[in-house]
Design brief:
- With 228 residues, the chain is of the alpha/beta class.
- It has a single domain (3-225), classed as Rossmann fold (3-Layer(aba) Sandwich).
- Helix content is 44%, strand content 15%.
- The chain contains seven helices and eight strands.
- The protein has helices at 12-23, 35-45, 57-71, 91-116, 134-137, 150-169, 197-208; strands spanning 3-7, 27-32, 48-51, 76-79, 123-127, 174-178, 218-221, 224-225.
- Helix 1 (12-23) packs across helix 7.
- The longest helix is centred in the middle third of the chain and has 26 residues, at 91-116.
- The protein starts with a strand and ends with a strand.
């Protein structure tokens, strides 16, 4: 039985990813910074809750220590927690967006590495975005070309690069980033677009359940590897 941790899993793609991994027989930890919402989500799913704020080092260390004490290993890590900036970009907003979307990946990955190394088939999936792809944002035929979300896009470019660099540094662990598809979540409600989280989570789960000989260091969507 494999053990999975999904950050930001109390709603949206993270919640649905947790549900689908549970359906496949994984032991799933719902990571969320809000205890009430996280416990409610875990109870609804039949998963396990762990308080995890990706912007807080102590919270991250405590969450992984909890999983270590209970399971002794971690097979799947899904970096799903993320924020989207609103209003005019400024320094404090940039720090908040990058702290969650990029630095948070470093915090959680570094804390999880000892547990991942105990797995026979360790896998890390980062929910990134093609909004962070130079190819996509410069292509007038792509929806990313028209999105005015500079800080989000830049932070997701960083998230994808972190994925590639971790894959190079740890060839015994698969690291892949993904564009889950335009999804209707709380974060994208102002755009009024997107498909269901259930559909997008399937892309996450596919990468989270790769065989040991699966790809690493890639950015993918449901159709395969994306240029970026």
């Amino acid at each position: 039985m494999t053990v999975a941790l999904v950050t930001g899993a109390n709603k949206g793609i993270g919640f649905e990813t947790a549900r689908q991994l549970l359906a496949l027989g994984h032991v799933v930890y719902v990571g969320a910074r809000d205890v009430e919402r996280g416990e409610k989500a875990a109870a609804a799913l039949g998963a396990r809750f762990v308080r995890l704020d990706v912007t807080d080092d102590a919270s991250v260390r405590s969450a992984l220590a909890t999983i270590d004490a209970a399971e002794g290993t971690l097979d799947v890590l899904v970096h799903n927690a993320g924020v989207l900036e609103t209003g005019v970009p400024d320094g404090p907003t940039a720090l908040r967006v990058f702290d969650t979307n990029a630095v948070g990946i470093v915090r959680v990955t570094e804390a999880a590495l000892p547990l991942l190394r105990r797995s026979a088939n360790p896998t890390v999936v980062t929910v990134s975005s093609s909004a962070g792809s130079f190819w996509a944002v410069n292509n007038p035929d792509r929806p990313e070309y028209h999105l005015p979300i500079a800080l989000y896009a830049a932070s997701k470019a960083a998230a994808t690069m972190l994925t590639v660099q971790y894959a190079k540094a740890h060839p015994d662990i698969r690291f892949n980033a993904l564009e889950p598809g335009t999804t209707a979540t709380d974060m994208t409600a102002s755009f009024g677009i997107g498909r269901s989280p259930e559909e997008s989570a399937r892309v996450v789960v596919r990468l989270a359940t790769l065989d040991a000989d699966g790809p690493t260091g890639t950015l993918q969507d449901e159709n395969g590897t994306l240029p970026w």
